[in-house]
């Protein structure tokens, strides 16, 4: 009896008779020989069908089978350095083929397709080895985040997705009608995370976040996934150390476990090998000075204009890209002007116009993957900030309670999963980092 094999485990089966269940990825016709590339979701294996060695009906099945047909193949595993596939270097000498479903003419061929076409066929595009590699790396990123946080004493406590209040500014809120009452999809779990640390010490929530982004960029989705660790009795400095250790661990796990996938993506791993703590830290003031220096030096007037920045302005994509390209490692930019950041961030006591916050910019031009801060622990100051932001004070009474009963210094951050995956996989656009992206003008399939 042949054993059912996952292709990723093929090295353990040399000499054995195995069965693989999957789909036809590609076929080469050599006359008396067919090379079938079969994928099963864990890898791709070359299956050799030789007219000499198989019954006529098996050879006929190899002739008939079309791209993306589902099939069950049985044969013997042998080593052959030339064999393509993932992991590659092994092939199956076929004895039997059972076609489960003969696929119609498959719309995605070997020729280049435009992005719009591929996005319209996202449900089929996911079968390509490139998309396969990205999703496998994404799963490892998520696994690694959970493993690291769990090992550091964080408790996973998830937060609601339907909320009554804004946390990250009212311009990107997604309203939901609930029998005439207005609710919002969560932009972040942060405010609830803060409640949870007073019960559980160190927590993280892990889930989707929703933001009604209005502009078309390579970095923004309407629905994205975020992990948000939050820590009681945690200073701003300690928060930065936790963030850099987490990111370094995630990258190391991908390098360790996803070599084949990185190779499919032709990802140069040298820049990833450098992602080791400590990461450089730069204040917003220093970043503004650098950007204006580069603007000064730039010959191209368009680039000059894109880089120039006034103190007080938030960074746009060109600023983040330039800063990120300047460093080999991810870089923390800290102490932004309070006016461009959320209401709950702790002002610097020496300079209340800036807050104790940090964005982590991924290298190679990727920009922000983490936003974090120390939170305001003082009741009066928080109330004042809620008022200054014209937020409805009644809705924040429960949040103010956290400053009434045992308030402590506390900090936390949010790490965007798709941004992190886009960087680690070296993608041009965030849309490939999630199976079914939701973006401006793109909600289907
Ligand atoms: P940006 O400045 O790029 O709009 P942000 O400062 O609004 O991001 P935060 O509120 O700090 O984002 O959220 C924490 C993290 O969530 C970000 O660092 C990023 O990784 C991710 N993130 C935020 N908005 C989006 C989005 N629209 N699509 C994908 N990821 C996002
Ligand atoms: Mg934003
Ligand atoms: Mg930002
Ligand atoms: Mg941010």
Automatic annotation (TrEMBL):
Q: Which residues form the Aminoacyl-transfer RNA synthetases class-II family profile domain?
A: 136-445
The keyword Cell membrane is assigned to this record:
no
What Pfam families has UniProt attached to this entry?
Answer: tRNA-synt_2, tRNA_anti-codon
State if Magnesium is listed as a keyword. no
Q: Where in the cell is it found?
A: Cytoplasm
GO CC, any one term: cytoplasm
Keyword tags: Aminoacyl-tRNA synthetase, ATP-binding, Cytoplasm, Ligase, Nucleotide-binding, Protein biosynthesis
> What reaction gets catalysed by this protein?
tRNA(Asn) + L-asparagine + ATP = L-asparaginyl-tRNA(Asn) + AMP + diphosphate + H(+)
Entries under InterPro entries matching the protein: Aa-tRNA-synt_II, aa-tRNA-synth_II, aa-tRNA-synth_II/BPL/LPL, Asn-tRNA-ligase, Asp/Asn-tRNA-synth_IIb, NA-bd_OB-fold, NA-bd_OB_tRNA
PROSITE patterns attached to this UniProt entry: AA_TRNA_LIGASE_II (PS50862)
Name the principal localization, coarsely classed: cytoplasm
Write down the EC number: 6.1.1.22
Report the GO molecular function annotations: asparagine-tRNA ligase activity; ATP binding; nucleic acid binding
Q: Which GO terms describe its biological process?
A: asparaginyl-tRNA aminoacylation
Task: Give the quaternary structure.
Answer: Homodimer.
Q: What family, per the record?
A: Belongs to the class-II aminoacyl-tRNA synthetase family.
Task: Supply the name of the protein.
Answer: Asparagine--tRNA ligase
Gene name, Swiss-Prot/TrEMBL: asnS
